Amino acid sequence: xxxHRAQARLDSERERPIPTESHRRLVTAFRTAxxxxxxxxxxxxxxxxxxxxxxxxxxxxxxxxxHVPARHAA
Length: 74
What we know:
74 residues; mainly alpha; single chain
């Protein structure tokens, strides 16, 4: 369902203006992530904390190679 909505938005002709400051923050965070490997700020902008839904509590996540924190995945 999320993919369907995203595809519909991409296919629509409607453009949404983006405030210059928001664009600047995103570009800066992306460049910092690319230069340093630190993804925290970029992830915070892309996925605000109040929108993160965890499937398992942090204490029950697997500790092996299947679980790699985002800051180490890139």
